[in-house]
Write a structure and sequence with these properties.
Blueprint lengths: L3 E2 L6 H25 L3 H27 L3 E2 L4 E3 L1 H9 L3 H8 L3 H25 L1 E3 L1 E5 L1 H24 L3 H24 L1 E5 L11 H25 L3 H5 L2 H5 L8
Antiparallel strand pairs: 1-2, 3-4, 5-6
Amino acid sequence: MGHLDHAALGWLTPALSYAMACTGAALGLRCTVRALAATGRTRRNWLLTAASAIGTGIWTMHFVAMLGFRVSGTDIRYDVPLTLVSLLVVCAGVFAVGYGRNRVRALLLGGLTTGLGVASMHYLGMAAMRLHGEVSYDPVRVGLSVLIAVAAATAALWAALNTESALAVTLASLIMGAAVSSMHYTGMFAVSVRVTPSGEALPGATAMQFIFPLAVGLGSYLFLTSAFVALSPTAGEHQAPAPARQQPAGSTTP
């Protein structure tokens, strides 16, 4: 059996991956709050931004954490197309909440869909891993990781429906980031690898060749989108009369 090291780079990758999960969750929640206050095309655009933010944050969290993953006795490569597919499967649940008429049913369906999307993203990402050996999983820990993913997604979507203040969204995103990280490492602790030494070159790209540049690019997208959302006026500000928006705080009209 190969020895698995989940933090070969120390606390850097767990801490950075947690920060990316929190950033994606916070941005996704803020966009979902904006979407629920909008209608038509505006709602759709906010939901698209929310879904991409949550999906990007969780995907980046997973693969930043994987930068610190090592297996003794073998190199690791990643199948590039399958890794990209894993980025696309996590976003559908946001739309179930955004467009569902029955909020309870939409929340349950959205939480289940998003949670299964998170778990699918994780295990698709693991399926994209190439090494000299055979990967197996503890089914109990796999099941636990899926339950954590569904619970985390449901809690996050509930927060999007029931929190509006920046402080509440921040707390919700910190909790969701912790839950997503817990899901990831629960899934990773379900992994065991039987190494088969070989001199053959592995197909695919190394983490530094592919995952690191893509994670940096997606992380930049998250931070730039966060700035855009922070500077965008809310629905209430859009509806306010122009003189009221321009009037300095504390001043009175004559």
